[in-house]
TrEMBL record:
<dbReference type="Pfam" id="PF00072">
    <property type="entry name" value="Response_reg"/>
</dbReference>
<keyword id="KW-0804">Transcription</keyword>
<feature type="modified residue" description="4-aspartylphosphate">
    <location>
        <position position="48"/>
    </location>
</feature>
<dbReference type="InterPro" id="IPR000792">
    <property type="entry name" value="Tscrpt_reg_LuxR_C"/>
</dbReference>
<feature type="domain" description="Response regulatory">
    <location>
        <begin position="2"/>
        <end position="114"/>
    </location>
</feature>
<keyword id="KW-0597">Phosphoprotein</keyword>
<dbReference type="InterPro" id="IPR001789">
    <property type="entry name" value="Sig_transdc_resp-reg_receiver"/>
</dbReference>
<protein>
    <submittedName>
        <fullName>DNA-binding response regulator, NarL/FixJ family, contains REC and HTH domains</fullName>
    </submittedName>
</protein>
<dbReference type="GO" id="GO:0000160">
    <property type="term" value="P:phosphorelay signal transduction system"/>
</dbReference>
<dbReference type="GO" id="GO:0003677">
    <property type="term" value="F:DNA binding"/>
</dbReference>
<dbReference type="Pfam" id="PF00196">
    <property type="entry name" value="GerE"/>
</dbReference>
<keyword id="KW-0805">Transcription regulation</keyword>
<feature type="domain" description="HTH luxR-type">
    <location>
        <begin position="132"/>
        <end position="197"/>
    </location>
</feature>
<dbReference type="InterPro" id="IPR058245">
    <property type="entry name" value="NreC/VraR/RcsB-like_REC"/>
</dbReference>
<keyword id="KW-0238">DNA-binding</keyword>
<dbReference type="GO" id="GO:0006355">
    <property type="term" value="P:regulation of DNA-templated transcription"/>
</dbReference>
<dbReference type="InterPro" id="IPR011006">
    <property type="entry name" value="CheY-like_superfamily"/>
</dbReference>
Length: 201
């Protein structure tokens, strides 16, 4: 099995290559662009999220998964926010691991991912399970109003004017909305709210 390690830190790549070379044939890439170029020759990609200059790990994952006969992508990172997890999964990652996982767990995760099965760090799995089992995020009446205005394409200033509140207050509500929905952009907030039937277009 061939594995591509993608990380912009040479020391981290060196350690991962040395570790995984015991069980797999390993190649490496330092940038998102380089990972996309090399992805067609491997079975599994271990992808960091932050890759310095150029495209990040999420965009690299999206491009890799758009290839013909793409390899499976497993995110291996120190970032564990809900927004990061959602972005990675939406981009096509089949797994999400944190860099504090053990060597044996990492090798097993690679094998599992190569068969098309999802692999998640225990903490990530528990968090996602709670989200699935838990109720949909409750938005305040004002947050729903702001989302509805977002869906109409209004700017923060226009929303503030419509609702007779300050622009700063709109920004504060947006931050809370993003956290509750696990998103990072206005477009994603509207899309997620519609999917969860929190608002109607």
């Amino acid at each position: 099995m061939r594995v591509l390690v993608v990380d912009d830190h040479p020391v981290v790549r060196f350690g991962l290559v040395g570790l995984l070379s015991r069980d797999f044939e390993v190649v490496e890439a330092a940038t998102g662009e380089e990972s996309v170029t090399r992805a067609s020759t491997v079975d599994v990609v271990l992808m960091d999220l932050q890759l310095g200059k150029g495209i990040d790990g999420v965009e690299a994952t999206r491009r890799i998964r758009a290839l013909e006969n793409p390899p499976q992508v497993v995110v291996l990172t120190t970032y564990d926010s809900d927004a990061d997890i959602v972005r990675a999964v939406e981009a096509g990652a089949i797994g999400y691991l944190l860099k504090d996982c053990g060597p044996e767990d990492l090798a097993e995760a690679v094998r599992t991912a190569s068969t098309g099965q999802t692999v998640l760090s225990p903490d990530i799995a528990q968090r996602l399970l709670r989200q699935v089992r838990g109720p949909a995020p409750k938005l305040s009446k004002r947050e729903v109003q702001i989302l509805e205005h977002l869906a109409r394409g209004l700017s923060n200033r226009e929303i503030a004017k419509e609702l007779f509140i300050s622009e700063a207050t709109v920004k504060t509500h947006l931050v809370r909305i993003f956290v509750k929905l696990g998103v990072e952009t206005r477009t994603a907030a509207v899309t997620t709210a519609v999917e969860r039937k929190l608002i109607r277009l």
